[in-house]
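Teaching note: in complex prediction, the entire set of molecules is handled at once rather than each chain in isolation. The prompt given to students was simply: 'Predict the structure of this complex.' The entities are:
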Amino acid sequence: MNKKICIRKENIRPLLERLSESYQIYLPVRDSETGIIDFADLNVLKDSDNLSADFNEKTKKSPKSVVFPSTETLLEFEYKKDINKPEITQISLLEKSGNEAGTEKTGKKIIFGLKPCDTIGFKSFDLVFNEKGREDKYYNEKRLDTVLVSIGCSTIFPDCFCLSVGGNPFNFDYSDIGLVDTGDLLVIMKKSENGAIAEILETGKEFLEEREFDESGLKVIDDIILGSKSRQQKLLEEAGLPEIDKDSIEKILESNFSNEDVWKEISQKCVSCGACTYVCPTCVCFNIGDEVRDLEGERYRCWDFCTNYYYTLEASGHNPRGKIFQRYRNKINCKFNYFHKRKKILYCTGCGRCVDVCSVGMDIREIIRKVLMLEKSKETPLSVR
Amino acid sequence: MHKETAVEKKLRETASGLFPDEVECLVGYTQSDIAGRTNPVFIKEKAEAGKLIFDRFCINNLSVYPYYMKDEFMGSIGVVLKPCDVKSIAQLISEELLDKKKIKSVVVGCGGVIDIKRIQRNIGGGRIISAAQSGDSIEINTADKSYTLKMADFYAEKCYGCRIYDSPPYSDIFIENDEKLPVVPQNSNPDLLDILEKSELEEILAFWEKEFSRCIRCYACRNICPMEVCRDRCIAQLDLPRWQSGKINSDEGKFFQLIRVMHLAGRCTECGECQRVCPANIPLVTFMKKVNKEILRLFDYVPGMDSQARPPLLTFKNVEKNIKEEELF
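The expected output is the structure of the full assembly:
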């Protein structure tokens, strides 16, 4: 016999509302006017009648903005001038007055209902912003108190390919709480070491129940997990995209860096906008700007994207990545080569958001296939020899 | 498997005939793995012409590509276009941004194109897993539901009222299509510009405030626009001097869009690409319609209809017959 904590579907909303008394809750919410589904604050959902929670589909954007807002103020400062000593300007910091949008409040947060691939996105972020000795204060003050509650994917969408990049639809490795949807129940399958979990379960215990699962009950859950995996496996086999060998894709990319014709062909359709970057759960790049009005100013950071001409434009006017293919080459290398070298993981979770959002059909799966083919075409003559 | 239609047969034959002498590269449409879409394809030899398709999902305006490509290719660039798309090419030629001699416009008659985003919105936003045309209807499947929709309700906005579907204003080669746009169908969506023009200023502001709250400043609208050849010299991203803040919020999104709109006044051919590619579903074409309406009133000019014309804002006249100086002050 096996005891598991369960949430009945009709109790999700009351549970979250109870938790919202001590946590800020983010969940996937669909706007009925635009049809767009994105992570939103539970309070926004409560206030608006054209929004509804939806845990089945992928959100349009990744949940990264919860801990990495698109714009955040780093510091505010003021200039002080003395009319008697005009040659001296003093700068002093102002008390940080918080950020613009309401989404970036610090404090305890729960992101409820994100996909397992999205949790791997947070891993990618943690590896960059929480690297030992280089901890980013602004990121960590939002991230450290964030609890990730993910629901495994029983629906596989045509652009999903997490198995190819080493994930799987029920990969709860980086979730604080991992849930399996059995139809009318969400069953807690995983609890991490995170100290907040006991508190969450205690706060919400009125809406939780412990159930005994006998062998057949456990088999139902196993079947859901295995069924979903095998459906995706089949899709990926049809698409010719089996699990990528991380070391070998790193080597292929490394050795084909100067193969410009290949990169020109791969990036031909790309118009170098930032849509794919801004929906990506792993893209971490940002820009920093100072803006001054009269004698007061602020330093902020905002998202930036590497396919953008200005990303590498140097002060001299020279741009080492002036052409789209150079920028796109960097994007792919960043995800499958550079970060793998440094952190031993691919900076792609297989969520497929970039495939869905791209208006000219740039398909990262197709690009991976093409890159892997490069190696094969090289190998063939060798094996013939 | 895709079955070759009559118009595709003609298109592929024409395309094969262009190689190797007439064009070095031909941009056309090919099938996509994603439901309800087609992808741009770059044909470089005769043998590849079989990749070309032309169906109701060919909504992209491919005239954005020649300007991107012109430094890569010495010879002529061919583009497969719908009669509405060719307006962008004509406008670029009239502004001397493209060399007429190096562009081959292969225009295909059009039966109207389907706006898959509009379908998605209509069915409540669910992810579309398959989409296919069958006769006058479209078969749509999402993860858990199937729909059969009337095609006439889901054309791209620009198709409603289109009068040039079989008579392009400009072309090098015109391929007739037996599938014609049926009796100028009515748009079931109310015209947003109409509504906004009748609204109070505060309401208009509130409307755009809400729409732009979703803007992520990805610049997809800018980069997909055939007319915006200045995308790598953009005032919105310039650092020295910094004209516009890099912050990502509703105000900055709106501000950028207004700059964009003003510099497309009298140039925009209303192909609708900016709105199609917007990940936030902001109805951007409404701005363009508004400025073009003013341009028509002031200068009696419609962008993209005449590759020989001199665009009114690129020239100077001592007296403009529709602008009364005394009314300006």
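Point out the following to students. The first helix of chain B runs from residue 6 to 18. Chain B is about 30% helix and 15% strand.
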